[in-house]
Specification:
The complex is a heterodimer of chains A (about 190) and B (about 250). Chain A is an all-alpha fold. Chain A has helices at about 1-15, 15-20, 35-170, 175-185. With about 250 residues, chain B is an all-alpha fold. Chain B has one domain. Helices cover about 75% and strands about 0% of the residues of chain B. The longest helix of chain B has about 40 residues, at about 210-250. The chains are: A mainly alpha (about 190), B mainly alpha (about 250). Chains A and B meet through helix 1 and helix 3 of A and helix 3, helix 4, helix 5, helix 6 and helix 8 of B.
């Protein structure tokens, strides 16, 4: 493209030499003009001043601004990363707490169930004992009553037998013989 | 009138003195006025940019930071770590040439980069700087720069003169490239503009219609010249970095 520019320029200059080179001479090539050299001297002075302005003031300042921004961004990113790590840590802690709580509650439930079962068993054992005792007592009472009843039977039997024999035979039976007979029957 | 405009295609490059009698006395030229304006614009840009030092930059600060980082990147990439000390120099050079090129595009302004004396002085300074840096870093060993490694011995008598010639031609190509680009653009502008006036004066109404063609060319050329203004400043700065790289690293 640069070459095209030059080619086009030279073409134009070639086509219209009377127009372009009417003066016959380019001012740029006129080294006899003292201004040609003078502009270079002034340029040196201007560029020297510009160079010191840039090197001592402008560029370090702008560089400092850019650096400060980068360190600021880096610090912000760092803070964000730390916050993320803290958040992740907190989540992990929360999960751990939840798991611990679940385990604790399950063990508490198991314990409570166990305790309830124990108590129920103890109660049932106690109840059984009481019932057994009552049954035993009742059985003992029944036994006593039965023995009393059994004990009460022989006189009644003797009386009945005596009266029966009296009615049948018309005479009183021998009490000793009745007793013997009854004893042999009940044995 | 038309003839006069057409004839003065090179008149735009004529040096005069600026700043009245004082300027005439110290030979302060119109091109120096533009240089001063360019330096003032660059300084003002930084002054404006540094007024707020905002964390989120405004336009001016953004521009200053962008130019800073652009040149910093270029210096870092091209020269390497040692290039840091040359960053202010390359930045000054780049900014000065860029603003000078762009200022030259405005009507009635002077394009100081269109003067071979100016570009030549800059190029010679860059050339001398890179040579001094080369000897500073390598002493007499800098002369090894002219014999590239890995070349068969019998080629050296041929190669070393070529290397020396190419080394010595650096300031010429550097200065002529910038000077020729800026000069060519401005001459073409003026020639096409003069051609328009010639068409109108010589052909009348037909000429007015025909003048649309050089006008369109000039419009297209304006866009091209803005590109060239930036590109040439960039090329000058990059080549400066490249020469300094060669001086420090020897290829």
């Amino acid at each position: 493209m640069r070459r095209t520019t030059i080619a086009l320029a030279s073409l134009t200059l070639g086509v219209m030499p009377s127009v372009a080179m009417a003066d016959g001479k380019m001012p740029q090539m006129d080294f006899s003009n003292p201004l040609t050299g003078a502009q270079v001297v002034w340029m040196a002075i201007i560029m020297l001043i510009l160079y010191f302005l840039m090197a001592r003031w402008a560029l370090p300042q702008i560089g400092g601004v850019i650096e400060r921004r980068q360190s600021h961004i880096a610090a912000d990113l760092d803070t964000a990363r730390q916050a993320k790590a803290r958040a992740e840590h907190a989540v992990a802690e929360l999960n751990l707490a939840i798991r611990n709580a679940r385990e604790a509650s399950q063990s508490a439930i198991a314990e409570a169930v166990h305790a309830a079962k124990e108590r129920a068993r103890a109660q049932s054992v106690e109840l059984n004992d009481r019932l057994d005792a009552q049954i035993a007592k009742a059985e003992a009472e029944i036994n006593v009553a039965r023995q009393q009843a059994v004990a009460a039977l022989p006189p009644v039997a003797r009386d009945v037998t005596a009266s029966l024999l009296l009615r049948l035979t018309g005479e009183p039976a021998d009490p000793a013989r009745i007793d013997r007979t009854l004893a042999s029957l009940s044995a | 009138m038309a003839q006069e405009s057409a004839i003065n295609a090179l008149g735009q490059f004529q040096l005069t003195t600026g700043f009245g009698p004082v300027g005439r006395l110290v030979e302060f030229t119109n091109s120096n006025e533009m240089m001063l304006l360019a330096a003032a614009i660059i300084t003002m840009m930084f002054a404006t940019a540094l007024r707020h030092r905002a964390m989120v930059p405004g336009r001016m600060q953004g521009l200053a930071e962008m130019s800073y980082e652009f040149v910093h990147q270029m210096v870092d990439d091209t020269i390497g770590h040692e290039g840091r000390q040359f960053f202010p120099f390359v930045f000054t050079l780049f900014a000065f040439i860029l603003v000078g090129n762009v200022l030259g595009l405005f009507p009635y302004f002077f394009a100081f980069t269109s003067h071979i004396a100016v570009t030549g002085a800059l190029a010679i300074f860059v050339f001398l700087l890179s040579t001094v840096v080369g000897f500073w870093y390598h002493g007499i060993g800098f002369l090894k720069f002219f014999s590239p490694p890995g070349v068969p011995g019998w080629l050296l008598p041929l190669l070393i003169p070529i290397e020396i010639v190419s080394f010595l031609s650096r300031p010429i190509s550097l200065s002529v490239r910038l000077f020729a680009n800026i000069t060519a653009g401005h001459v073409m502008w003026e020639v096409f503009a003069g051609f328009m006036i010639m068409l109108v004066t010589s052909l009348g109404a037909v000429g007015v219609v025909a003048a649309i063609i050089p006008l369109g060319l000039n419009i297209a050329l304006s866009a091209l010249e803005f590109l060239v203004a930036f590109l040439q400043a960039y090329v000058f700065a990059v080549l400066t970095c490249l020469y300094l790289h060669d001086a420090i690293h020897l290829h």
